[in-house]
Amino acid sequence: MLKLRSIHLRREESRCGNRSLVGGLEPASFEMSQAIAHRPPLNRSLWKRLSPTGNAGDALFRILMFSVALLMLLIVVGMILALGSHAVDSLRQFGFSFLTGREWDPPNAQFGALPFIYGTLASSLIALLISVPLSLGIAVFLVEQAPRAVARPVTFLVELLAAIPSVVYGLWGIFVLAPFLREHVEPPLGRWFGWLPLFRGPITGIGLLTGGVILAIMITPIISAVVRDVLAAVPDSQREAALALGATKWETTRVVLVNGTPGIAGAIILGLGRALGETMAVTMVIGNRPEISLSLFQPSYTLASVIANEFTEATQDIYLSSLIELGLILFLVTFVVNAIARLLVWRVTRTTAGAAA
Amino acid sequence: MTSLTALCTVAAVGALIIILTYIAQRGISSLSFRFLVEAPKPVGEGGGIGNAIVGSALLLVLSCVVGIPLGISTGVYLSEVGRGWFASTVRFFVDTLTGIPSIVTGVFVYAVVVLRMKHFSAYAGGAALALIMIPIVARTTEEMIKLVPHSLREGALALGAPQWRVTLGVVLPAAAAGIATGAMLAIARVSGETAPLLFTAFGSRFFPGRLDEPIASLTVQIYNYAISPYDEWHAQAWAATLVLMTLILGINLTVRFFTRKKF
């Protein structure tokens, strides 16, 4: 109602030109104008913001778009609230010891998240160790070395890796990757590096290492795509300067890499965020046992996998609540990780783009 | 050094080719017309993925109906309407949505929709997929609208058109191809999602009847078959994967074909 009135008011104002606002109104609007008179600046500025052009359709349009935008905020806030409120039982009962508890024993109502936190971090770390050098290599090749005719189709092919669904990676992991690692990779690792606790124990092909490798394949297209953008954003003047000083091609590439360091760090953290939350593929190959073992050959469990596996089986309230708390932890961790990553990437691509312009 | 970086690239492309050819080989051997139209049967009696194909299609339609308009509107807000700290906050939250693990989206929809309805449903599954779709569509829309030259807007405004007509009648049509691309990629992305469907749409062994009941989907069926102990179901999982990958690669290649001049 207020809005309709003010639209009317606005028209009146424009029609009346210099005449005073209140004077130009009919008596019926007087009450209204009194109300406005109490807080005129706010109302005027609100109207101005709703419709700088003074058009009613614009105001409606802007209000509609604004409500959708507001809905996005509400969804994210609602997510935190919904997860938090359903995790309240578990939060109350276990408190901080939930994070450090090593027991996950649903029949006895014992719930501790540590094995899952460990499994999530360990598998993501393995994935990063494999994927980061690989992604850097791909990005450098595509931006700095490959001729355009090669770079374009290859870029598309690498990006296609990101289009393969998680469950398909999982299926492939179970039937191809796990047997391959069991027969051709893990035995030599055990033979040569068995003195490290990392490579001890029975070899099954299902475990942390397999989970890490499949994650590495999945995050490589993401990291390499962002690094590619970052390298492309490094101004050519940097390359020209290095070359002019007599640097070789490789030394020039190093200059470019150093220039893009924050962005590359951002890309890596972005990949980490993806790896932490990846569910299906990991669930299918990691073995799903809530144990903390240093050995990469042993089965493990991640935050996302335990939710995927046990959510529909959780019959007791405290069980479900604990699982939702695991979801909340995952949400908060990926939230922070992604925020840091975006900040880093944004700094590079923005500042260098600005400098180039 | 060039050989080393080239090797990295070959490794990634090689992985893609190995995975795709393996899917094609294993998938084609169990693929038949009956497999595509029949509902699942007990082990040993054949059966197919017809229900899952219909289910996935319904879920995609549901998610598009909600996700695409909301995504485009958010994108329009971010590029045409919003200014200042509020727009930045919205952009940040939309990016946050992109980064949320899809399993967490599933948990959220479970808490908000499934617990309230007291049972799994196609609606819940569609909502979960829509939540994943919105930020993707929103950000592509924003980027695509930014590419529309300012002179177009100024021209329309100079002719006396109000802002909403400029946006809906001039800017959006000019960016339509790009927005459609983004929407297609978002569809490709969510059609492969499994985690958010596990406890929203849940899955079913029958053809879908009503939308407020649990519904089958290709991805969940692939998952259930993959972790089952039966060879026959494994073979069906590969065939279903071939169907899914054909859809997803089809979308990606089509989009690539239509945008090849721009990138």
What this model shows, in words?
The complex is a heterodimer of chains A (357) and B (263). With 357 residues, chain A is mainly α. Chain A folds into two domains: 2-86, no CATH class; 97-356, MetI-like (MetI-like fold, Orthogonal Bundle), CATH 1.10.3720.10. Chain A has helices at residues 2-16, 30-38, 40-50, 56-86, 88-94, 97-100, 114-145, 148-163, 166-193, 208-233, 236-244, 249-259, 261-277, 280-285, 303-310, 317-356; strands at 104-105, 110-111. A two-stranded antiparallel ribbon of chain A has the order 1-2. Residues 1-40 and 353-357 of chain A have low confidence and may be disordered. With 263 residues, chain B is mostly helical. Chain B has a domain at 48-217: MetI-like fold (Orthogonal Bundle). Helix content of chain B is 76%, strand content 0%. Chain B is globular, with a radius of gyration of 21 Å. Classes of the chains: A mainly alpha (357), B mainly alpha (263). At the A-B interface, helix 4, helix 7, helix 8, helix 9 and helix 10 of A face helix 1, helix 3, helix 4, helix 5 and helix 6 of B.
What characteristics describe this protein?
heterodimer; A: 357 residues; mainly alpha; two-stranded antiparallel sheet; 2 strands; 1% strand; flat; B: 263 residues; globular
